[in-house]
Amino acid sequence: MSHPAPRSRLAVAEAITAVLEDVAPLPAERVPLADAHGRVLAEDVVSPVALPPWDNAAMDGIAVLAADVLGARADAPVVLRVVGTVPAGGAWRGTLNSGEAVRIATGAPVPAGADAVVRVEDVTYDGDAVLVRDDRDVRPAPGARHNVRPRGEDVAEHRVVVAAGTRLGPSGLAVLASVGCTRLSVVRRPRVALVASGDELVPLGDVDAVRAGRGIIASNTVALAALVREAGGEPLDMGVAPDRPDALRERLQAALDADSDVLLTTGGISVGDRDHVRDAVAALGGRLRFWRVRMRPGGPVGAGTLPRASHADVPWLGLPGNPVSTVVTFELFARPLLRRLSGDARPFRRAVRVTLREPVDAPAPLTHFLRVTLDAEESGELAARLTGPQGSGLLTSAARADALLVVPEGVTALAAGAPARALLLGEGALDAAALDAATFTEVRA
């Protein structure tokens, strides 16, 4: 079967669109609630109960009729008769009448007849009586059920409480637990086969080989495995393939046989004598959607699909072998693919506006992705600074980065102080080493 010729030298946005073409979420599976953190809901969850399940007190105090305490002052307190107590988890079955009060704890059901709760700080008990010394809890709007949280205020009964496509964090899990969920239908995690290519690659820990000049440690697989997990996938390390067409084909076939959902290769994708990945993909009947993107680092990147007899075609991404190029192309192409497969409605890294604190050059007619650190300044601006030299083989430049600064194609330089955009990397990209005390004392525009 023949395939259309692959496109080449695509713009970055075109390449991302091509990678995500025809990609749909994987099938769902049911998992225990405790195992659902970071997973994406496959279906809406409808609450069988209202939350809170009853009108309840927003604070400790006394349940009253608001009209009884309106006008209460320290020098003219209102005296009510205490007729009961409602602890947390308890209830008072009577109906409150004018001139009466019930002691109540935060979260306890508000008795019938009561329409307000007076905070405990404004009352004094005297035997079976209680003196209300301030009417501030009912004065602003009489009849508004002050300090009473109404039934269903948080979650309405028989309504969607968490929608399909939501990636579940701690608070979302707490909501689902509170409405009685014990198992959830979530999108299956994509299984991602990782194949590194190159005669120069040696196993982890083989520092002697590095010292002797016999090779470099296969660190890309370590980075990719971590990136895959962060993106919601399950990495399958298929090892290193030598720079021989037959060996590479065998390793790719093994990756397909491992029931993977995505195949990622690193290295062997450029135009050198030992770059055999594209030929291996073609030999296995694969379709190459594109090869080469107008970007730096990471220009020699390819994407396509590989056939598998018993399943749908498997998406394949051929990432460059230079360490920084591997990371950058994963972020731009592989991560959105994995997030889309896992059902995430927001598969892309967040782009933020930044201000450069040093000039940058980008002379080639490409979209450049520079590794930068970010600092929040008192002005409210995010200041971006290069992590150091930006060579595609300098992995430390990526290790120190909070974000990828985007220099669009056609822009050859940006001056210090210029505005720009940057793609945040990782959940902690904007975490701070220390807390600004003014955070809790000042409001800044």
UniProtKB/TrEMBL annotation:
CDD domains: MoeA. Its cofactor is Mg(2+). GO terms for biological process: Mo-molybdopterin cofactor biosynthetic process. Pathway: Cofactor biosynthesis; molybdopterin biosynthesis. Coiled coil: none annotated. Gene3D superfamilies: MoaB/Mog-like domain (3.40.980.10), MoeA, C-terminal, domain IV (2.40.340.10), Molybdopterin biosynthesis moea protein, domain 2 (3.90.105.10), Molybdopterin biosynthesis moea protein, domain 3 (2.170.190.11). Keywords: Magnesium, Metal-binding, Molybdenum, Molybdenum cofactor biosynthesis, Transferase. Pfam families: MoCF_biosynth (PF00994), MoeA_C (PF03454), MoeA_N (PF03453). Residues 193-340 form the MoaB/Mog domain. Its EC number is 2.10.1.1. NCBIfam families: Glp_gephyrin. Belongs to the MoeA family. Catalyzes the insertion of molybdate into adenylated molybdopterin with the concomitant release of AMP. This is Molybdopterin molybdenumtransferase. The lineage of its organism: Bacteria, Pseudomonadati, Gemmatimonadota, Gemmatimonadia, Gemmatimonadales.
